[in-house]
Amino acid sequence: MKHGFLFWCATLFLGGLILSACFADRIAPYDPNLENRTQALHPPTLLHFWDEKGRFHKRPFIYPTQGVFEANMTRSYDAIHKKKCFLRRGTRALLGVQSPARLYLLGTDSRGRDIFSRILYGARVSLSIGIFGAFVAVAFGFFVGALAGYFGGWLDHLLMRVAEFFIMIPALYLLLALRSALPPTLDSFQVYLLIVLILSAIGWGGVARVIRGMVLSLREREFVQAAQVLGRKTPEILMRHILPHTFGYLAVIVSISIPSYIFGESFLSVLGLGIQEPAISWGNLLMESLSYSVVRFHPWVLYPGLAIFLTALCFNIVGDHLKASQVSEDKTGEIPS
Amino acid sequence: MNSEPLFQLKQVSKTYATREGEEFHAVDGIDLEFHRGVSYALVGESGSGKTTLGRLLTGLVCSTEGEIFFEGRRLRDWVRKSRTKFCEKVQIIFQNPYLSLDPKWNIREILEEGIRGMPGRERKRKIAVILERVRLAAACLHKKPNALSGGERQRVAIARALLVEPEFLVLDEPTSQLDVSTQAGIMTLLKELKSSLKGGLLFITHDIALASQLAEVFIVMRRGKIIEQGLRQEILLSSKAPYTQQLLASIPAWPPLI
Amino acid sequence: MSVLMDVKDLVLSYPKGPRFGPMSFEIREGEAFALVGESGAGKTTVAFALTNVLRFKRGKRINGKINRHCSYKEISYVPQDPAAALDPLFTIGSQIRELGCSEVAIRDVLEKVRLPLENISLQSYPHELSGGMLQRLLIAMALVRKPKLLIADEPTSSLDVIHQAEIMKLFRAVHAEGIAILFITHHLPLAMALCSRMAVLFEGKIVETGTPQMIFQTPQHEFTKRLLAAVPMLEVA
After folding, report:
1. Mean pLDDT over residues C34-57, rounded?
2. pTM metric for this prediction
3. Which residues of A touch B86 (CB under 8 A)?
4. Is residue C86 part of a domain?
5. What pLDDT score was predicted for residue C1?
6. Which is the CATH superfamily of the domain at A115-331?
């Protein structure tokens, strides 16, 4: 099946995001933890090509800004139009701007840290938790499902009841319960691993069920029976004829379940149970937006949420397309009518 | 007929549980003997249990009651203790060539399935010989099954079964999914191959005309029970059983009565 | 005998898909006409074109002419797989009533296909009936509208020999009533036993038309010869 325009857009976005997360220290204009308290909650800066006289500049520029305190104790920033500061290669990154202006592509948070840089750094943690978590869950679920499906009997019963137990518990409570059962004082790497484990503990059950069902139906297919009649041993049949047929669906499951792992991490971190400062994740970036008054006057603190949304959307688009092509591939094995 | 039968079925039943919790007897207390070197036809309508009987003989399913003996030894023991050896003696061709070949593998890999213990050169030689016999081009070895037509696929399935040089072959409606002209080709091939099977064959079909081309002994089955068994001319010309007569009367006239 | 349907240079095609035609044939009033061909020859597509169902398929293209001398309401269709043609969620009674005919007419026509109301319950669901019964039911549903032409697309291919013989008997009775039948099949013996004229369809083209006798005794096209030779002969001795 040919993939559509949407699929390539999504793939491109995800590829770009993963690459820029990997090279965040070369792309992000500022250190994510660099605080510039004089420019807290700075709105996103606009890139200009035309100055106020209408002259065009090939290289985009921005105007430096100056904070002004308003009567209601909020702060706003006025642009100083006299001076143009051009975009150039940054001192530590690909992007930078001439001083005294500062480049806040997506604005700053309440401590004056650049949100764009923080999103890029946060992507490292959030994306990797999502991908890593999905892989762990799918690998474990696959293993359990394949065992249960192929051997059947009491083993199937046992494994499926355990899987159902994990599916049955509302994910949110399980997440909180598991997290609270574990010590709160852990360093950020331990927390990272812990979150991956917790999330995949929630997710493997569903995967195991799907894989078990596929293995059950594949086991009855005639080509598997043919292999049995030809004298092939059980593990061989499982490896050669049954599991290869589930790989396509595994790719679908991985890409569709990654968003839920990203959500899970964000959820824990927003509540302060996940990744904690100074480590950065999309979840703890969103802690900023927990306050209504901040969101009301400084909506750009929601940009991390937009990043989560777009990423989840793209993973879902990719997953849907993989699924569609998988279905059409499966159909070629059927009788033409 | 030889003294010791190849297969001996004693009161064999296969029962499935239906969704409503009732029991369904696909095969219901059958006594049968298959002798060496004889071609059998198993005739009956759908739901008569003929496919289940075929699978019972290949050890794919186990009987719920009764016992099947192969060369005087219980089939259960064959399957449990010397499965590889049994597989080299009894093979099956499935009904649907669109389902019986793994779509992920190419034809060479599919053919090698049964003879993977052999050294590479030996395998190559055998495959070349068998392709000649089933009249398939060597070019198809690198193709996947879905690049082949139904008839070609069935030839691959036949070649795969014959590569292990079985004594007894079960053919489970091998042409029912194919076009009439393709079916004729497969039937010609099967007639040629018949002589190479020392132990004989069992041709399962609902088409009596097809069965008459290949088999010497007819077994008529209905609702899990054997209605009648006998030589071809006995069954076709002087059958006493009303069900067999009904079956025979239903065959469309050919050549047409014009 | 007047012509009921006259197909002239009909070409049916799907983009990037198969192309069938051009084909020309006519179906006369009250005759049994067989269209014989193998899978992929375009048999079902032709049936769809004649029943006007093809209009609803996406991407199709119909060229050429179909001159009808009867309305679409006078054409009935019997499908290949009776189990797939009925909605499994509704009782057969409600599906018959959907045709919009009187109880008497239903009773009559069920009687005619030897499926009297005493034997079946209209409250039963399609899966509770056997394949042969379902096919008879579908023939009844086709007949209830008093068609002039009955198009049957491989009506026996999913049935056993005994049921096949029963259905064929039914078609003969329908034919005797003066209803024209377009019998689409891959099974030469059936076509030759029922029909007075037949056409052989090969790779989307009609390669031969004639009476069964002509085609059996003097087949012209290679494919027809192959098809005739392929029919399994009953070997008794």
Report:
1. 84
2. 0.79
3. 231
4. no
5. 67
6. MetI-like (1.10.3720.10)
Residue C207 sits in a domain whose CATH number is 3.40.50.300
- pLDDT at res. B42: 94
Report residue B204: phi and psi, to 5°: -95, 125
Give chain A's residues under pLDDT 70: 1-2, 71-74, 90-93, 98, 328-337
Give A-chain residues touching C39 at CB under 8 angstroms: 336-337
Closest partner CB to B208 (pick from C226, C231, C234): C234
Instruction: Report pLDDT for C13.
Output: 84
Question: With contacts defined as CB-CB under 8 Å, which chain C residues touch A336?
Answer: 39-40
In one letter, which amino acid is B87? C
With a CB-CB cutoff of 8 Å, which residues 196-225 of chain A face chain B? 221-225
Instruction: Write down the pLDDT at residue B190.
Output: 92
Whole-number percent of chain B with pLDDT over 70: 98
Residue of A nearest to B78 (CA): A231
Cis peptide bond upstream of A184, omega within 30: no
Name the closest residue on chain A to residue C41, using Cα atoms.
A337
Chain C residue with CA closest to A335: the answer is C39
Is the minimum CB–CB distance between B98 and chain A shorter than 8 Å?
yes
Q: Positive or negative CA dihedral for A83, A88, A90, A93? A: positive
Task: Give the minimum alpha-carbon distance from B72 to chain A in angstroms, rounded to a whole number.
Answer: 20
pLDDT attached to residue C110: 85
Distances (CA, A) of C120 to B46, C107, C141, C173: 22, 11, 15, 21
CA distance B256 to chain C (A): 6
What is the count of residue pairs from A and B with beta carbons less than 8 Å apart?
A: 67
Q: Assess contact for B229 and B220: CB atoms under 8 A.
A: yes
pLDDT at C79 exceeding the cut of 80: yes
In chain A, which segments carry CATH 1.10.3720.10? 115-331
pLDDT reported for residue A61: 79
Q: Is residue C135 part of a domain?
A: no
* Letter string b/e over residues A156-189, b meaning 16 or more CB atoms within 10 A of that residue's CB: beebbeebeebbeeebeeebbebbeeeeeeeebe
Structure confidence at residue A337 (pLDDT): 33
Enumerate the residues of chain C whose CB falls inside 8 A of the CB of residue B207.
Answer: 161, 232
Q: Which residues contact A143 (CB under 8 A, 6 or more apart)?
A: none
pLDDT at B1 over 70: no
Give the domain range for residue C182. 3-81+147-220
Q: Is B249 an 8 Å CB contact of chain C?
A: yes
Non-local CB neighbours of C106 within 8 Å, separated by 6+ positions: C96, C97, C140, C144
Which residues of A fall within a CB distance of 8 Å from C40? Answer: 336
Within a domain: residue C52? yes
Which 112-151 residues of chain B touch chain A by CB within 8 A?
113-114, 145-146, 150
For residue C164, is it within any domain?
yes
A336–chain C Cβ distance below 8 A for any pair? yes
Type of residue found at B164: V
DSSP 8-state symbol, B176: T
Instruction: Please tell me the total count of domains within chain C.
Output: 1
Place of tokens 């016992």: B67
Residues present in chain C in total: 237
Residues B47-87: pLDDT tens digits? 888 999 999 999 888 889 999 999 888 998 888 888 888 98
